[in-house]
Amino acid sequence: MIKAKKSLGQNFLIDNNILDKIVNAAPIENKNVIEIGPGTGKLTSFILKKKPKKLTVIEKDNYLAKNLENDFKKKINIINDDILDVDETKLFKEKAIVFGNLPYNISTEILSKWIINIKDNFWFECLVLMFQKEVADRIIAEFNTSSYGRLSIICNWKLNIKKICDIKPEAFSPKPKIDSSLLFFYPKKNFVKIKDPNNLEKVTRIFFNQRRKMLKKPFNQLFNGDQRILNKLKIDLNLRPQNLSLEKYYELVSEYENLRS
Hints:
By secondary structure, this protein is α/β, with parallel strands linked by helices. It has helices at 16-23, 42-49, 62-72, 107-117, 133-139, 150-155, 197-208, 216-223, 227-233, 246-260, and strands spanning 12-13, 32-36, 54-58, 77-79, 96-101, 124-132, 159-167, 172-173, 180-187.
């Protein structure tokens, strides 16, 4: 029996109903598919039944990668590496569908890396990803809510996001101590153009550094109290960071870049 490694944040999904929901979230047949963290290969088997064009799995654990090789032979392409070190844009020439039961300790790091690296040509058709429920709630949070913050703003910049379902600990082995959520991401057709995505990280970091404080201090730090920008974007500096909509943050980043160009 394969034992999960705490150091790699491993919790293996064993619930067939949830596995069914995952593979039915997107049309797989004759498509290129990437699976992140296949573990024991349960989801891998479900994906293969849907007849993808090609399936590439990325597994950091050496023992699990060898086990997958023994179980699936030439049916899958195995990359035995850390997903954070893989250039996902070069795996396929065509767009891929991505599935991932992401290690919870690095899930936001993986997603942020992908989003920051997205060019105008998306390298994926959609992402079907599992997160700790608390993290998923932050990703899909709307403004004026306590969960709304940097992660919500960064994730929703170029992507539409829908929750598929919540998942109880009993669906995994070993059982995690928290609930999980499955999210579906797909590209937006229209989004605010930002020249350097790192500026989105910078602006949101400064605004949410003191999320309970009013907007005046971070705005002055970034824009030196520029009244023209306030008037243009119709921003009330007496509000708090969570009271500004997604679009306002993207517009702020665009203005920030204009000032420095």
